[in-house]
Amino acid sequence: MIRLFCLIWFVCITFHGHAANAEPIDGLTFVKAVTTPEGQDYSINIQTLLMMTTLAFLPGILLLMTGFTRIIIVLSVLRQALGLQTTPPNMVLAALALALTAFVMRGVIDQEQIQALNPYLSGQINFSVAVSHAKLPIQNFMLAQTRIDPLHLFINLSGGHFKTPQDIPFAVLVPAFATSELETAFQISFLIYIPFVLIDLAVASVLMSLGMIMVSPSLISLPLKLLMFVSIHGWVLVLGSVANSFNLPAGS
User: Within the chain, which residues score under 50 in pLDDT?
Assistant: First the structure.
């Protein structure tokens, strides 16, 4: 639904802004290439096709080029550590992770809007220049989160030599960033899991010492873990820690 809405919105504003370039031929409407101060740009039909292709890869972009992966893994491990298999539901966790992702990346979104989207919609730059301007903020964000070891790994696998980090292509940066996000997410999840494991061990030891071996430890530890988590405002602590774990570049 969101993808369809974005596509309709993009097509409407694009064809509305360049309707003067349309020429009817044999009952069909073809759009001439747009000429801007930077030179001739792709035709509107080609731009629309590129945007539709981009929307098809939107879920992959969300997973591999934003902080969504780190956030959703931490929330999933937290739910498992609490002993709650289906609460909160997957839909709630995904919505919460998406909202926190938008909050963390609000600076990147603002930069892309100022540097790329607004100048393109006002006709100051063409489509290809807008794409190049939109590339820089997300590239700086991923570089700020990527660890050295995964980055060196994929640079060596690609066989390339880059003078500056900005010269690293997305084909190398994206897998390095995704690997770094997985590593960071598991480190945070490990620290979150430890207190709940200690509660489980304590409850199991007490039940065994009382001879209540037929009683499931999770039956007793679950309310204790919920009580501890609520009393220390666990959701605030977890979400705040995850948001602060992102090394945002300057200006974000």
Answer: 1-41
